[in-house]
Design a protein that fits this description.
The chain contains seven helices and two strands, in the order H-H-H-H-E-E-H-H-H. By secondary structure, it is mainly alpha-helical. The protein has a single domain, classed as Arc Repressor Mutant, subunit A, CATH 1.10.10.10. A hairpin with a 3-residue loop joins strand 1 and strand 2. The longest helix has 34 residues. It starts with 5 loop residues before the first helix and ends with a helix. The mean pLDDT is 86.
């Protein structure tokens, strides 16, 4: 079902433009989150593959993320440079301590976002899909508010 927002949007008064430094900070935060999102997705998937199958091979990573093998190799190389993973020939990819901490943080953020979306009536599969984008962009303050909302008495 597609919901059109045009009737609602046309009735809203135009928002006041924020000061330039404020707006630049907001857009900068979004760009930064987009840059980190890819690495976070890889680290989270690697953790899941290691937990469920004991190994995370570049081929499996590429298939599960829907990217080419070359793209997966390139991103894994970047994660190695950032100290998040180690790759061993013929043994796959493993998380470093920093990588494990990041994977746990991303998994927790994902869970909170999914739980909030489900709590406000979003179907579970849609909540899972939407959380894949939201989890990377939501601030710690907003995430804390989500958690407070979820813990409130019914």
């Amino acid at each position: 079902m597609t919901v059109l927002l045009t009737p609602i949007i046309s009735k809203l008064a135009p928002a006041e433009m924020p000061a330039e430094p404020t707006q630049a900070r907001r857009f900068g935060k979004a760009r930064s989150a987009q840059h980190g999102a890819l690495g976070e997705d890889y680290v989270e998937l690697i953790a899941d593959l290691l937990a469920t199958g004991g190994e995370a091979r570049p081929t499996d990573i590429a298939r599960r993320l829907g990217v080419s093998h070359a793209t997966a190799i390139k991103t894994i190389a970047r994660l190695k440079r950032e100290g998040l993973v180690v790759a061993r020939p013929y043994r796959g990819v493993f998380l470093t301590g920093r990588g494990e901490l990041l994977a746990e943080r991303v998994r927790m953020r994902h869970r909170v976002v999914v739980d909030l979306l489900v709590a406000v009536g979003v179907p579970a599969e849609a909540a899972e899909q939407d959380a894949e984008g939201i989890e990377h962009h939501v601030s710690d303050a907003t995430l804390a508010a989500f958690e407070r909302y979820l813990r409130r008495p019914a």
